[in-house]
Amino acid sequence: MKHLFAHGCTAATYRWLIRFFWLALIMWVALTFRQHGISNDEYVQHTYGQMLLDWYQSGFKDQDAFHYRNLYLYGGLFDIIAAALDPYIPIMIWDIRHLLSALFGLLGFYGVSRFAHLLGGERLALLAMSLLFLTVSWSGTMFTHTKDVPFATCMLWALYATALVVRDMENVSGKAIVLLGFAVGGALGLRVGGAFAVIYLVLLVILRVLLDYKQARTPIWSRLLRMVVVLLPAAVLAFVFMAMCWPWSVIEPDNLLEAAKSFSHFDFNMQTIANGVVYNISEVPRSYLFQYLAVKLPEAALLGILSIPLLWLAGRHAVCLADQPTRMTMLTLLVGILFPLVFVMDDRPALYNGVRHFTFLLPLLAIFSAWAIVAVWQALAQSRLHARAAYQALWAGVISGLMLVTLVDIVQLHPYQYVRLNRLAGEHAQFKWEGDYWSSALRVATDQLTEMKLPARDKPYWVAACVDTPQIEPYLDGRFSVTRRWDEADFFLSTTNMHCHDVMKGKLIGGVQRQGMWLAVIKDRRHLQGADRLASPAKN
Q1: Is the whole-model pTM more than 0.90?
Q2: How far apart, in Å, are the Cα atoms of 121 and each of 24, 323, 377?
Q3: Per-residue pLDDT tens for 116-172?
């Protein structure tokens, strides 16, 4: 496969382009990490991180972390780091968390670069990183999805290390073993779903042994035993690192199983929406994740994935000629993509917030779609078609145009680009899918409210919000106080996700707009009387 990508600009040119890409990424993170609002789960997650830190600082005596809501079912890798940094960085803890999450996101970009390089060198690495940036469910969420993005990054690096293991087998380097241990331990130290990484590793090592036996009659059982010995240090390192990040998981022998059972059938009273149809999160169709991937992935990536049949017709000989290690790298990538999708189809777990709980698929899909795009371009170059240069130019032009369209949308929606839907969603699709479900736009809406000149009065102005109180309270000044008695509220703040803004009446006096869409609203309710002050059900 690698020779598919051997032509074009020199490797040195691509390396310089990648350096410029990294410079732009770092500047983007540094300039924008303070523009995002507090997500729904951040308050409890930070509290959990502080409790875990207290457990360590108390000499393992303070057990509060192991009884705090259901947070003990999660690992605390990210939250411990954020809580430890809080006293030493003179900015709001929420901005610290967003910057730390963005750094995990950047580590994900680097993982994509390294994995793509295994398959096709610098050109594929650059294109894969570009497609990941255009995937708004990654680049638009990497500041605020403080559980999902770090978990996805650890899963990506675990799969990359797995690719190195199944490529080199007994000759795998010590660095790859250490990387595998930390990556798997980090994934498990965030969510029990990190067990997927262990399953991938076991399946792929067994498959490699069987393929080698078929081709060269190498022994099966002795090789498997040797691989157990080779991988044992990684297993020990992963277990220790997981235990450090998630101590509850090792306090009792069956705690890991309890966490796995809880998350495979996790449910509470909440609704989601897909293509205009509202579901309870435990009753979503098997197609839910696929529908969201279809409307959230950038158009260029979708075209790349859909071009696989064309690639097979035009360039299957190149795939067949690929060496065993390269084919195993591609197989590793495919297992990382297909296994979770099959799991969703079979197990039907509770799903909501679109692709959020499967964010770890997005870097892999960026790599795969980039591989397909470049492979089709090179297959056209090697085909017997007349005017094949024209077909190449057409292919490159279409992909470039689609990427440009997505980039323009990102610029126009910033910093709320994660609400973007691609053109497959159609026009007026805002309320057919989940939008700003983390209510990030309320940070700006709250700033607008505090900047308004209001008559002075002895009691505070009461603010109701279609979010958890900690999401807006840090941004309000002393004139305002958040109330849960919405009928008494003077002002109402809400995002437009799932029609929550329609729950309360009031005069629209501000909010956040992008591309003609209201993402958040501020309503003045001071003039309302009687029944007009009462809440009404959302339109869902």
Answers
A1: yes
A2: 21, 15, 15
A3: 999 989 999 999 999 999 999 999 999 999 999 999 999 999 999 999 999 999 999
Nearest alpha-carbon partner for 123 in 265, 11, 270, 236: 11
Greatest C-alpha distance within the chain: 86
Rg of the chain taking only CA atoms, in angstroms: 25
What burial letters (b/e) apply to 509-532, b meaning 16+ CB within 10 Å?
Answer: ebbbebeebbbbbbbbbeebeeee
Amino acid identity, position 289: L
d(CA 447, CA 451): 6
Tokens describing residue 185: 């331990």
C-alpha–C-alpha distance, residues 108 and 530, integer Å: 53
CA distances from 62 to 58, 153, 210, 409 (A): 6, 30, 50, 48
Q: Hey, what's the torsion of the CAs at 463, 467, 473, 474, to 10 degrees?
A: -150
Residue in 350, 352, 336, 348 with CA at minimum distance from that of residue 154: 336
| CB-neighbour burial class of residue 507 (10 A; exposed 0-12, middle 13-18, buried 19+) | exposed
Which DSSP category does 266 fall into?
Answer: -
Alpha carbon 166 to its chain's center: 26
Secondary structure class of 512 (helix, strand, coil): strand
Task: Please name which of 417, 419, 425 lies closest in space to residue 437, comparing C-alpha atoms.
Answer: 419
